[in-house]
Structure formats: C-alpha cells, structure tokens
Design goal:
Elements: H1 13-57, H2 59-67, H3 76-97, H4 114-148, H5 158-167, H6 169-192, H7 200-222, H8 226-229, E1 236-244, E2 254-264, E3 267-275, H9 292-298, H10 314-329, E4 336-340, H11 342-352, E5 355-356, E6 363-364, H12 369-376, H13 385-391, H14 394-410, H15 416-428, E7 432-436, H16 439-448, E8 461-469, E9 479-488, E10 494-503, H17 520-523, H18 526-530, E11 534-543, E12 547-551, E13 553-556, E14 567-570, E15 572-574, E16 580-589, E17 594-602, E18 608-610, E19 616-622, E20 632-638, E21 645-649, E22 654-656, E23 659-665, E24 670-676
Parallel strand pairs: 1-4, 8-19, 9-20
Antiparallel strand pairs: 1-2, 2-3, 4-7, 5-6, 8-11, 9-10, 10-17, 11-16, 12-17, 13-14, 15-16, 18-19, 19-24, 20-23, 21-24, 22-23
C-alpha cells in the first residue's frame, strides 16, 4: 500500500532549505545591523573627538595673540588660565578616546576622518605632554615674569631674578621631562601616519611645534642651571675664543682673539679682550712642542695659544686653551670656555639690535657686521705697518665692550625669546660651543649638544671631515667643500668618501707660496690675505675599528712650503681621538682650481644594528665642522641583496632598487637612518 505523505509533519527538503535561508538572512541582517550600529557609533565617537579637537585647536590663535606683544606684554594670569583650559579639553578627549584607543591604529579606512583617528592617540599624548610642560613652566616662572616685566628691569635686576629661577628648578625639570614625552609622541606620530594626510590646522600646528621643540628642550634643560652659569653662588670666569672661520681650524676657525669675562650675581663684573698673539710669554717661559702636523707643514716649533683648538673634540681643545692662557699670563683658573665665530656675532647682533661702537659714528648691525670685521683688519689710511700689526684686532675689544654696554644699559629692549632662539640656533648650527668644568653643568651642555664633544659610542656609522688651514692665510673665504659618501652594507661593509674642494678665487698664474706675499704691505689688505692658495690638513673621523683600504695620493711641492720639504703621500691612519679611527692627508688647492681627495675603508661590523623585530638598522651620524659654511653632503647607501626597505629618515632624494640616495645641506649635525628587513 502506497503511503500518502501529503499531510506528513516531517519537513521536506525544500522546507528545510527555505528555513536555512531565512536563518542566514536574519543572521546577515543582524551582522549588517551590528556593523551599521558600529559604524554609527564610531562615526559619532569620531565626530565628538573631532569636535573636541577643534575646540582645543581654537585655543591656538588665543595663544598667538597672548605672546604677540613679546614676553614683556604677556599676562601671566591669562597664560595660566589658557593652559588650564587646554588641559580640560584634553581630559575630555582622553575620555572620548578611552574605549576606542586600542583600535585607532586600524581605523584608517574611516572616510575623511581615518588618518585623524589613527593619529589621535599620538596627538593626544603630544597635547597632554605639551600642556603639562606649559602649565609647569607658566606656574613656576610667574614670579620671574613679574620681575622681568617691571619697567625698571635691567641687567642689575638679574641678581634678583636668578634666585627665583633657581627656586623653580624642580618644576622646570618636570617640564623638561614632559617635553621629552612630547618629542617621543611626535616621533610615534610620524611613524603611524603620513603628516600630509592630517587636517591643515593640525599640520600647521605641527610645523610650529617642530620649529620650537628644540628651543623648548634646550631651554628647559639650561634654565635650572642658569644661576650657576651666571655666578649666583660666586664669580664665574670664562675664556672666550674668538675664532675666524675665514682661516679654518678644527673647532670653528683660527683663534684670533681671547676674551676673559667674569660674571657674578647675573652681572658682568669684568671683561677683557686681547689679540691671541699677545697671550703667550715666549720670552720668559718654555713651551711644549706642538702637534706634529704644525711642525711638518708650518714649521711651528712651539705650541702657542692661538693653535690650541687643534682637536675637533671641543672639550679637549678647550682644556688646552685654558691651560695655555693661564700659563702665558699667570691668569686665574677658568670655569669654562665659550667659542664663537664671526657668524655668531651676526646672529647675536640680530637679536640685540644695532650696536653703536663707542668713540665712533659706527653702528654694527646684522647686515654689516661681517663686512665691518674684515674692514677693521685692513690697514687704515695713514697707518704705519707696525701700528697696523699692533692694532689690527683691537676692534674685537671695542665690539665686545659695545655689546656689554648694550646689555647693561638697554637690556630691557632686547626680546628674550629672540635672543634665546638665536643662541639655540647658533649652537645647533655649530657657531657656538660651550664647555664647562662643572660636571653637572657640563652634563647638561653635553645633553644639549652644545659642548662640541664627539660621541664615544656612535649609533652605528660616523663621519666628520675636518679641515685645518695651514697656509697662514684666510683662503677659506674662497673655498667650497662638498662631501660624497657611499656605503655598501654587507657583513664586511665598505665606505667610500670623496671630498671635493673648489677654489673660487681668480687664477693668477703665479706659483703658490705658503703664507702671504713677501711684501708685508700687500698683506695688510684683508682680501689679499684671503686670495691665496689653500694648504689644508684634512682629517676624516670614522667609527673605531675602521680600516683604510685605499686613498688619493697628493703631492705638495717643497718650493711652496716654508719647510721646503715636498709632501708626496696617500692618506694615513693616525692617532688622534682614542674612541674614533682617523684618516689624514695634506693637500694644496691653487686659486681657481678643483682638487678631489678620496678615502676607501672597511667599516666595523657594528655599523649594522640588528633589531628585536628581526629587522636591521643602519644609522649614519654625520657631523658638521664648526664654522664650515654652505657644505653639501651627498649620501648613498647600498642595502644587502634581498633587503626590503621599511623606513628611512630623512626622506631620500632617490630610491633605485636597493640604492638609497640622500642630499643634505650640512648646516648642522645630521642623522641618516634606514630600517630594513
């Protein structure tokens, strides 16, 4: 009997399929609804974050208006209120981002707001750290600002100001720590998202912060030490080395003048300036033999004060300068050394404003200071040669006295922010070096990079090319130098350095002769001392353990030298700075000509740093020689076969497979970094 399934309660295959489809549709709808809800929630959250961020950004124009009139016009209470308001907005942002913060790195896909969401935690950390630093600085320095803003404030008021700044030291140190946290967040932001994808207001603020960050870092480190530096606890004696970069030496130029300044309770109590040639007591005291190159190439037999800055490691040269000054003049011990060059004077006058020179109708400005310095060294109309030799550097003393008078009599007219900015810039650009014997103060200067010391443990590769003009002339006015550095990364990495010199002076057809013209009268014109051939002792500083493989050979005819001994040699490895390997050579660059010298060497294995992630890091710390101007450094790095580039800093000018090229205007020390797998 055939059964009838028409009324059977068992589901058919079609019914089962239909049921599964319905369940799937419901599930998909639920998932879609969940996604939509999530998107709406994220959108609302993003919008609230955006609105809060905009509120925070709105504070920026108020801050600009607050400082527009300079430090003298800042309302301390308004500044404090503004900082506290910013911290309130930041607290709101913290709350809004707390739930989604762990997933913000994955929200780059959100339309329009994706990059901002990815950047938000880093921006928030920057805002938090920056506002904390601002709050600490504003609160702790309010009493100091009140003193500074008094109508009668002048140099004499510094004695009253210094103890107030000293009392604020703990808060300023906390502010410095907050700025360091800000800097770390800024680096993390650059690694997380391209800055050019962020809103223009954010980009604008980042540009401003990038400009001011070094000043904030340096200033907050130094302010707590200001009292010691300015002689609050007792007089401080500093030796000033006035260097002339027209005659290049290791730390910034030939030592043309020496100043002694004593400060106590914030005031300059004594200032003396003299020609560097009048420091040594050759007649009554014995002097040591100089570094060998001075004898080999200049026939100097005694180590005098003017040649003290032979080593690019500034603390070494500074100690030697203090030793020779104290020895030659039976002077009291110094507390530190300040080395400056001619460009520093221009930077200083740019901050102070024009400076009148007492007893003359001259006013020195940032526009004419370099020209005035050179003209002052020329023989003057009606002046005897002997008188010129005696007085040709007297201008430096008058200039120093004029600066002192400007500070003491018109200190209130100087914008302290511009002064601080210019001084920091001068130190960063290697026109100012400061060495202090006090260990605490010395450590702060070293942390800021102001003491001119070279790293004892470079982070990978290291390069510094150092010229020493041994021609008894000012030829560096006409010398252009460029560096081309190529490194090939392998288990036995090799480097090749090319240094190109171009003499822009006019070819005279006359043979080169070391020093100035035989007729002394002709040498009295400054440019006559400059328009000469260039005798240069070149040293190249590399990581410890580097091995010289090959180099250019240079011949300097004996008839061009005082020694009358021909130099004919390739580069040599020399003993110089113990923690670095140094190569050296001697070369001659005639007027109107170009001379190229090269060094090929094997680098130590430590230049490639393995990372915990399995990646590798190559870093090149390339240093500017103080006083050097307009130098281009072209860097080429060849990565190992099979490598994959992860990140570079700075941005390269070209990437050709595994070949990465950089071009740097070497106005300051630079760090090139490549991370690869």
């Amino acid at each position: 009997m055939t059964s009838n399934n028409r009324y059977s309660t068992s589901p058919s295959a079609a019914d089962q399929l239909s049921s599964r489809d319905s369940t799937a549709r419901i599930a998909r709808l639920l998932v879609l609804a969940g996604v939509l809800i999530l998107l709406v929630w994220l959108g609302l959250k993003a919008w609230r974050v955006y609105q809060s961020a905009q509120s925070l950004l709105a504070i920026e124009p108020e801050a600009r208006a607050l400082v527009a009139g300079g430090v003298k016009q800042i309302d301390p209470d308004a500044a404090e209120a503004l900082v506290l308001r910013a911290r309130t907005d930041i607290a709101v942002l913290h709350d809004e981002l707390a739930i989604i913060r762990p997933i913000t790195p994955y929200l780059g896909w959100v339309p329009r707001l994706g990059p901002t969401l990815v950047a938000a935690p880093h921006l928030l950390e920057m805002a938090d750290a920056g506002s904390e630093a601002g709050a600490l600085a504003v609160t702790s320095l309010k009493p100091a600002l009140a003193i500074f803003q008094r109508e009668d404030f002048g140099m004499t008021s510094l004695g009253e100001l210094l103890p107030v700044v000293s009392d604020a030291a703990p808060e300023l140190e906390d502010a410095a720590a907050a700025v360091a946290r800000y800097a770390a967040a800024r680096d993390a932001l650059s690694a997380a998202v391209p800055v050019d994808t962020l809103p223009w207001r954010v980009r604008q603020l980042l540009e401003v912060s990038d400009e001011w960050l070094p000043i904030g870092e340096d200033g907050l480190r130094l302010l707590p030490q200001l009292s010691l530096l300015m002689g609050q606890g007792g007089p401080q004696r500093y030796l000033i080395l006035a260097q002339n970069e027209d005659e290049m030496r290791a730390t910034g130029g030939f030592i043309t003048g020496a100043g002694v300044v004593t400060v106590q309770e914030g005031r300059i109590t004594d200032l003396d300036f003299r020609d560097a040639n009048n420091v040594d007591n050759w007649r009554d005291k014995p002097y040591a033999f100089p570094p060998q190159p001075f004898y080999d190439f200049m026939r100097l037999e005694l180590f005098g004060f003017r040649d003290a800055n032979f080593w690019p490691e500034f603390p070494v040269s500074a100690e030697k300068a203090m030793q020779l000054y104290e020895y030659g003049l039976d002077a009291l011990p110094f507390d530190g050394v300040i080395a400056i060059d001619q460009e520093f004077l221009r930077i200083l006058v740019d901050a102070t404003g024009p400076v009148p020179i007492p007893g003359t109708d001259q006013r020195i400005s940032a526009d004419n200071v370099l020209q005035t310095l050179r003209q002052a060294r020329d023989i003057q109309e009606g002046q005897e040669i002997q008188e010129w030799v005696r007085d040709r550097k007297a201008f430096l003393g008058g200039f120093a006295a004029a600066i002192q008078a400007k500070i003491e009599m018109d200190f209130g007219s100087i914008d302290p922010l511009k002064l601080a900015t210019n001084l920091v810039g001068a130190a960063e650009d290697r026109h100012l070096s400061i060495y202090m014997r006090d260990p605490q103060l010395g450590a702060v200067l070293a942390a800021n990079g102001w003491d001119g010391s070279l790293p004892q443990a470079p982070p990978g590769d290291f390069l510094m090319a150092v010229d020493t003009n041994m021609g008894y002339n000012k030829a560096n006015i006409f010398i252009e130098r460029a560096l081309d550095y190529t490194v090939t990364l392998t288990p036995q990495s090799q480097a090749h350095l090319t240094v190109t010199y171009r003499h822009t002076g006019q070819t005279t057809g006359e043979p080169c002769y070391q020093g100035v013209d035989q007729e002394f009268e002709e040498a009295a014109e400054y440019l006559a001392i400059a328009d000469q051939c260039y005798w240069n002792y070149l040293r190249v500083y590399t990581p410890a353990g580097s091995t010289l493989l090959d180099s250019s050979r240079h011949t300097v005819p004996g008839e061009t030298l005082y020694s009358e001994t021909t130099w004919d040699s390739a580069g040599q490895t020399i003993e110089d700075i113990p923690w670095l390997t140094t190569f050296a050579n001697f070369l001659l660059v005639p007027q109107g000509e170009e001379v190229i010298t090269t060094f090929t060497y094997q680098l130590p294995t430590g230049v490639i740093v393995p990372l915990a992630s399995g990646e590798s890091l190559y870093q090149l710390d390339i240093r500017k020689q103080p006083g050097m101007k307009d130098e281009i450094a072209r860097i080429t790095v060849n990565l190992p076969n099979g490598a994959t580039i992860i990140e570079t800093s700075p941005a390269p000018i070209a990437v050709d497979g595994l070949r990465i090229s950089f071009e740097l205007n070497l106005n300051r020390n630079e760090l090139v970094a490549i991370r690869y797998r």
